[in-house]
Protein backbone atom coordinates (compact mmCIF):
# COMPACT_ATOMS: atom_id res chain seq x y z
CA UNK A 1 0.00 0.00 0.00
CA UNK A 2 1.40 3.40 -1.00
CA UNK A 3 0.89 6.11 1.58
CA UNK A 4 1.71 9.70 2.39
CA UNK A 5 2.11 10.11 6.14
CA UNK A 6 3.65 12.92 8.17
CA UNK A 7 4.92 12.01 11.66
CA UNK A 8 6.15 14.33 14.39
CA UNK A 9 7.43 13.82 17.90
CA UNK A 10 8.49 16.05 20.80
CA UNK A 11 7.84 13.67 23.71
CA UNK A 12 11.49 13.50 24.81
CA UNK A 13 14.61 15.63 24.38
CA UNK A 14 14.59 14.75 20.68
CA UNK A 15 12.52 16.85 18.27
CA UNK A 16 11.80 15.08 15.00
CA UNK A 17 9.67 15.07 11.88
CA UNK A 18 9.42 12.47 9.11
CA UNK A 19 7.43 12.39 5.91
CA UNK A 20 6.71 9.10 4.15
CA UNK A 21 5.81 9.43 0.47
CA UNK A 22 5.30 5.98 -0.99
CA UNK A 23 8.65 4.31 -0.16
CA UNK A 24 10.76 7.44 0.41
CA UNK A 25 11.21 9.10 3.80
CA UNK A 26 12.21 12.73 4.37
CA UNK A 27 13.50 13.39 7.88
CA UNK A 28 14.53 16.14 10.27
CA UNK A 29 15.73 15.38 13.79
CA UNK A 30 17.54 17.34 16.47
CA UNK A 31 18.13 16.89 20.19
CA UNK A 32 16.83 20.24 21.43
CA UNK A 33 15.11 19.77 24.80
CA UNK A 34 14.03 23.39 25.28
CA UNK A 35 13.33 24.41 21.71
CA UNK A 36 10.61 22.01 20.52
CA UNK A 37 8.02 24.74 19.99
CA UNK A 38 10.49 26.75 17.90
CA UNK A 39 11.74 23.91 15.75
CA UNK A 40 8.86 21.52 15.08
CA UNK A 41 6.81 23.58 12.60
CA UNK A 42 9.83 24.72 10.55
CA UNK A 43 10.82 21.05 10.33
CA UNK A 44 7.34 20.21 9.04
CA UNK A 45 7.60 22.93 6.40
CA UNK A 46 11.04 21.72 5.32
CA UNK A 47 10.08 18.09 4.70
CA UNK A 48 6.88 19.06 2.86
CA UNK A 49 8.83 21.41 0.59
CA UNK A 50 11.54 18.83 0.02
CA UNK A 51 8.94 16.27 -1.04
CA UNK A 52 7.00 18.83 -3.06
CA UNK A 53 3.61 18.13 -1.47
CA UNK A 54 1.14 19.91 0.80
CA UNK A 55 -0.60 18.85 3.99
CA UNK A 56 -3.84 18.41 2.09
CA UNK A 57 -2.25 15.68 -0.03
CA UNK A 58 -1.43 13.49 2.98
CA UNK A 59 -3.34 10.35 3.93
CA UNK A 60 -2.73 10.74 7.68
CA UNK A 61 -0.71 12.50 10.32
CA UNK A 62 1.08 10.57 13.11
CA UNK A 63 2.38 11.86 16.44
CA UNK A 64 4.33 10.57 19.40
CA UNK A 65 1.56 9.93 21.93
CA UNK A 66 3.94 9.22 24.81
CA UNK A 67 5.06 8.21 27.28
CA UNK A 68 7.56 11.00 27.76
CA UNK A 69 7.77 14.40 29.37
CA UNK A 70 4.36 15.92 30.15
CA UNK A 71 5.20 19.15 28.34
CA UNK A 72 6.75 17.36 25.36
CA UNK A 73 3.78 15.04 24.89
CA UNK A 74 1.36 17.98 25.09
CA UNK A 75 3.33 19.86 22.44
CA UNK A 76 3.34 16.82 20.16
CA UNK A 77 -0.39 16.20 20.33
CA UNK A 78 -1.26 19.90 20.21
CA UNK A 79 0.72 20.53 17.03
CA UNK A 80 -0.63 17.34 15.45
CA UNK A 81 -4.22 18.29 16.25
CA UNK A 82 -3.76 21.79 14.86
CA UNK A 83 -2.34 20.50 11.58
CA UNK A 84 -4.99 17.78 11.34
CA UNK A 85 -7.85 20.23 11.92
CA UNK A 86 -6.51 22.58 9.27
CA UNK A 87 -6.05 19.89 6.61
CA UNK A 88 -8.92 17.59 7.65
CA UNK A 89 -6.59 14.64 8.27
CA UNK A 90 -6.99 11.54 10.46
CA UNK A 91 -4.48 11.09 13.28
CA UNK A 92 -2.44 8.09 14.39
CA UNK A 93 -0.90 8.05 17.87
CA UNK A 94 2.36 6.08 18.06
CA UNK A 95 3.99 4.81 21.23
CA UNK A 96 7.37 6.42 21.88
CA UNK A 97 8.56 3.12 23.35
CA UNK A 98 7.55 1.11 20.29
CA UNK A 99 9.19 3.74 18.09
CA UNK A 100 12.50 3.10 19.86
CA UNK A 101 12.10 -0.62 19.17
CA UNK A 102 11.68 0.23 15.49
CA UNK A 103 14.77 2.42 15.76
CA UNK A 104 16.78 -0.52 17.06
CA UNK A 105 15.61 -2.60 14.11
CA UNK A 106 16.50 0.16 11.65
CA UNK A 107 19.99 0.61 13.08
CA UNK A 108 20.89 -2.88 14.28
CA UNK A 109 18.37 -5.32 12.82
CA UNK A 110 17.14 -6.03 16.37
CA UNK A 111 13.98 -8.13 16.68
CA UNK A 112 13.77 -8.18 20.50
CA UNK A 113 13.98 -4.78 22.19
CA UNK A 114 13.65 -3.69 25.81
CA UNK A 115 12.91 0.02 26.15
CA UNK A 116 13.27 2.26 29.20
CA UNK A 117 12.88 6.04 29.27
CA UNK A 118 13.99 7.87 32.41
CA UNK A 119 10.71 9.02 33.97
CA UNK A 120 12.43 10.82 36.88
CA UNK A 121 11.23 10.26 40.44
CA UNK A 122 13.30 7.01 40.48
CA UNK A 123 11.10 5.39 37.82
CA UNK A 124 11.24 4.44 34.14
CA UNK A 125 8.71 4.18 31.35
CA UNK A 126 9.08 0.53 30.36
CA UNK A 127 8.10 -1.71 27.46
CA UNK A 128 9.42 -4.79 25.61
CA UNK A 129 8.69 -5.59 21.97
CA UNK A 130 9.22 -8.48 19.55
CA UNK A 131 9.21 -7.87 15.80
CA UNK A 132 6.71 -10.00 13.89
CA UNK A 133 7.11 -11.52 10.43
CA UNK A 134 5.00 -8.80 8.85
CA UNK A 135 7.21 -6.06 10.33
CA UNK A 136 4.86 -5.04 13.14
CA UNK A 137 5.77 -5.14 16.83
CA UNK A 138 4.15 -7.25 19.55
CA UNK A 139 4.35 -5.90 23.10
CA UNK A 140 5.62 -8.47 25.60
CA UNK A 141 4.88 -6.33 28.64
CA UNK A 142 2.18 -3.73 29.12
CA UNK A 143 3.70 -0.27 28.90
CA UNK A 144 4.09 1.06 32.42
CA UNK A 145 5.90 3.46 34.70
CA UNK A 146 7.78 1.47 37.31
CA UNK A 147 10.69 1.58 39.73
CA UNK A 148 13.70 -0.40 38.46
CA UNK A 149 13.79 -2.38 41.72
CA UNK A 150 10.23 -3.63 41.17
CA UNK A 151 10.99 -4.44 37.54
CA UNK A 152 13.99 -6.52 38.57
CA UNK A 153 12.01 -8.43 41.18
CA UNK A 154 9.08 -9.15 38.82
CA UNK A 155 10.99 -10.01 35.64
CA UNK A 156 11.02 -13.61 34.42
CA UNK A 157 14.17 -14.76 32.63
CA UNK A 158 14.06 -16.00 29.05
CA UNK A 159 16.54 -17.23 26.45
CA UNK A 160 16.34 -14.29 24.04
CA UNK A 161 18.89 -11.52 23.59
CA UNK A 162 17.28 -8.11 24.10
CA UNK A 163 18.64 -4.91 22.60
CA UNK A 164 18.24 -2.03 25.04
CA UNK A 165 16.96 1.41 24.06
CA UNK A 166 16.22 4.61 25.93
CA UNK A 167 17.73 6.89 28.55
CA UNK A 168 16.65 4.72 31.48
CA UNK A 169 19.50 2.24 31.11
CA UNK A 170 22.17 4.85 31.81
CA UNK A 171 20.09 6.61 34.46
CA UNK A 172 19.45 3.50 36.59
CA UNK A 173 22.24 0.94 36.89
CA UNK A 174 19.82 -1.43 38.61
CA UNK A 175 18.28 -2.19 35.21
CA UNK A 176 21.50 -3.96 34.33
CA UNK A 177 20.67 -6.59 36.96
CA UNK A 178 17.52 -7.71 35.14
CA UNK A 179 17.51 -11.48 34.49
CA UNK A 180 17.77 -10.85 30.75
CA UNK A 181 20.57 -11.21 28.24
CA UNK A 182 20.94 -7.64 27.02
CA UNK A 183 22.89 -5.87 24.31
CA UNK A 184 23.23 -2.10 24.36
CA UNK A 185 22.19 0.02 21.38
CA UNK A 186 22.78 3.67 20.53
CA UNK A 187 19.03 4.42 20.45
CA UNK A 188 18.34 6.88 23.27
CA UNK A 189 15.22 8.66 22.03
CA UNK A 190 12.19 7.95 19.84
CA UNK A 191 12.32 9.40 16.34
CA UNK A 192 9.60 10.30 13.86
CA UNK A 193 11.56 8.42 11.19
CA UNK A 194 10.56 5.21 12.98
CA UNK A 195 7.07 6.37 13.94
CA UNK A 196 6.11 6.89 10.32
CA UNK A 197 6.72 3.20 9.54
CA UNK A 198 4.62 2.08 12.50
CA UNK A 199 1.92 4.54 11.45
CA UNK A 200 1.80 2.96 7.99
CA UNK A 201 0.83 -0.39 9.55
CA UNK A 202 -1.86 1.31 11.62
CA UNK A 203 -3.23 3.17 8.60
CA UNK A 204 -3.48 -0.09 6.64
CA UNK A 205 -5.53 -1.55 9.50
CA UNK A 206 -7.75 1.52 9.67
CA UNK A 207 -6.54 2.47 13.15
CA UNK A 208 -6.95 6.23 12.92
CA UNK A 209 -8.84 8.79 15.00
CA UNK A 210 -10.16 12.26 14.38
CA UNK A 211 -8.32 15.28 15.73
CA UNK A 212 -10.92 15.59 18.48
CA UNK A 213 -10.39 11.98 19.58
CA UNK A 214 -6.60 12.04 19.72
CA UNK A 215 -5.26 11.51 23.22
CA UNK A 216 -1.86 11.33 24.91
CA UNK A 217 -0.47 8.47 26.98
CA UNK A 218 1.25 9.73 30.11
CA UNK A 219 1.23 6.44 32.13
CA UNK A 220 1.81 8.50 35.26
CA UNK A 221 -1.46 10.25 36.07
CA UNK A 222 -0.20 12.40 38.89
CA UNK A 223 3.07 14.08 39.77
CA UNK A 224 4.16 14.74 43.32
CA UNK A 225 6.70 17.33 44.33
CA UNK A 226 8.09 18.86 47.49
CA UNK A 227 6.80 22.37 48.01
CA UNK A 228 8.99 25.14 49.36
CA UNK A 229 8.82 25.84 53.10
CA UNK A 230 5.78 27.96 53.97
CA UNK A 231 3.93 27.03 50.73
CA UNK A 232 2.33 23.73 51.80
TrEMBL record:
Cell compartment(s), UniProt: Cytoplasm
Biological processes annotated in GO: tRNA threonylcarbamoyladenosine modification
Main subcellular location: cytoplasm
Superkingdom classification of source: Bacteria
Sorted UniProt keywords: Cytoplasm, Transferase, tRNA processing
Segments forming domain Gcp-like: 30-134
Entry's Gene Ontology molecular function annotations: transferase activity
One GO cellular component, as annotated: cytosol
Record carries keyword Secreted: no
Keyword Repeat: no
Signal peptide range: none
Pfam families the record matches: TsaD
UniProt cross-references to InterPro entries, sorted A to Z: ATPase_NBD, Gcp-like_dom, T6A_TsaB
Protein family membership: Belongs to the KAE1 / TsaD family. TsaB subfamily.
PANTHER family cross-referenced by the UniProt entry: TRNA N6-ADENOSINE THREONYLCARBAMOYLTRANSFERASE, TRNA THREONYLCARBAMOYLADENOSINE BIOSYNTHESIS PROTEIN TSAB
Protein known as: tRNA threonylcarbamoyladenosine biosynthesis protein TsaB
Organism: Vibrio sinensis
Gene: tsaB
